[in-house]
Input
Amino acid sequence: MSELLQFLLSGIAAGGIYALVAVGFVTVYNVLGIINFAQGEFAMLGALVAASLVAHGVPLVAAAPLAILVAAAVGALVERGVLGPAQASSEVVRIIITIGVSISLRGVALTIWSSQSYGLPQFSEGAPLTILGAALALQNFWVLGTAAVIMAALFLLFDRTYFGSALRASVMNRDASRLMGISPARMSLYAYSLSAALGATAGVVIAPISLATYDMGIMLGLKGFVAAVMGGLVSAPGAVAGALLLGVLESFAAGLVSSGYKDAIAFALLLGVLVVRPTGLFSGVAASRQV
Amino acid sequence: MRIATRLVTLLALGALALAQAGTAGAQAKEYRVGVIMELSGPFSAWGTPMRDAIQLAADNINAAGGIKGVPVKLVIYDGRSKGTEALLLAKRLIEQDKVVAIIGPGTSPTTMPVVPYITEQKVAALSMGSSDRIIEPAAERRWMFRPPYGSRQNVERLITHFKAKGIKKIGFMSVNNAYGDTGREEFARAAGPAGIEVVAWEKFGGTDTDMKPQLTKIRGLGPQAIVVWAIPPAASIVQKNRAELGIDAIPLFHDNGASLTHQFIELAGGAAEGAQGVVIKLDVVDELPAGDPQRPLLLKFREQFEARFKTKVGGLYGEAYDCMLLVARGLEAGGDDREKVRNAIENIKGLVGIAGIYTLSPTDHNGLAAGHLVIGRVKNGKWSIAK
Output
């Protein structure tokens, strides 16, 4: 019994990590209309910058926001430098650009930080919480809490604010939004920086658990992407639900079947969802994005 | 007119011959040893300090008067963590730089592509990889040496310890790649004959962030000890997860891969306390008896390395240092004759190194015995000899 509970808790913990990355995918997709394959790299950037700052004596409360700002700035640079100028190109071209961006960011990180791993202290000191014999580290609560806060904030931003409506409008109809006084170019810049910041937040929060390495973004990005697709790519709550489901399935697979198949589960799920329900597991009738 | 041209030609040829004699003379005044290490790319975190250790060894040899008065000159190239690059560099070292022997490449995946070429060119190469395939089958690996410990000695040392402690039931966890698989195969082969039952064979990814499901499963099966076959960061994460789950009753043992650099303890933090594992004597040098034959060398290496490179020393760097010691022995007997150097390295008996005492033979191009390994336990943030 406590074993099953441990698998569930570990799965939820892993799912929280995927969720943080997945919401970044959703944000970019909602505004730029593309999949941002550099999402995992922004998590890596946030984690490594924060780890370096802490190692140089900067307190965590300052290091975390600074790292997120750095990543947002890099995101803005990327948008202005390569994605913005390619605005007129097809979606495929722009998606390939994000792959290029991810490889470049990884390369830059490798030259700055080499291939070493870096740790980050837990946000709150203390022993892990034990529930009926199953354990969950305190940092995992930070991960889950952050995911919940971000999910709620994104929901409010997109559905309840003028700015959010403007963001969504700019991808639904560029010309009409321009007529309404919304600059699609600026919206794209904001959205990309925002998603970079979201990625970095994920990186900073998970670094105490996963450690920070230059290539941590690859697997994070892939798992986050699978989660976002499961959620239908357009909704943050959907992505979070997809992420939790993915984490729990993986954990049960590792615990009950064989741990060798853990990663295969994620990709089998991705294929299954794309074939059977391409609009996402949780999509209602009208949930698909109108483009 | 014709005579003039002929004279000029003759003069030119003469000058050329002189120049060649000059370089030949210069070459005889130093022994050129090639080094291929991963100074950039994914393996650079290990390659760079290994290069430093080799340089330190060469400098020590030269400071002591070289090899019979002839200094060692290292020709160091960056293997860029790629097998193809390592092969190109091996060609350059052998054909252009005319090195007598090669130290490197630094990992198994970058070594394997170089093996056929090294064998064909008949130049001794000392790889820093961990795979047994680098030196086996012995008949096909005449020119390859691998000074670091392999999985076999690690397994042997662990099993000796388990027998002494009466541990008969093991849960085994390994990283899901060639490194973990080799350890797993070797442990499976040795466990049965030693009367050890393995209740679980679990795997985890090298970049996984949570190994608690595997640990929980193993805990449920009630083994007397858990063996983990991985390197940091994964090895550190397993250690952290064990602390989170509070599995204090079942001791956890790491293979030597975990303790090869200071990263394991650093990344696992407080969770590292009580971790056990196969370590080399360098890790526990402060507790060695005064009469230990390796002790003076270990102390000197640690002091020199940490003072010069401002990095904490690690067993891996010690093994790189050993490569240079082995090559030096080869040069002493073989001079700049590649074949003689190889033969001399193969015949080394009782060379005191950092990792252990090397005794090589035509069928053993590693030269280390499991008996030089120590079972360590982390106490106050550093390794100590397990009681």
Summary: Residues 36 and 98 of chain A are 6 Å apart (CA to CA). Chain A touches chain B at residues 3, 6-7, 9-11, 13-14, 17, 110-111, 114-117, 119, 121, 128, 130, 134-137, 206, 209-211, 213, 215-216, 218-219, 251-252, 254-256, 258-260, 262-263 (CB under 8 Å). Chain A is about 75% helix and 0% strand. The two ends of chain A are 48 Å apart (CA to CA).
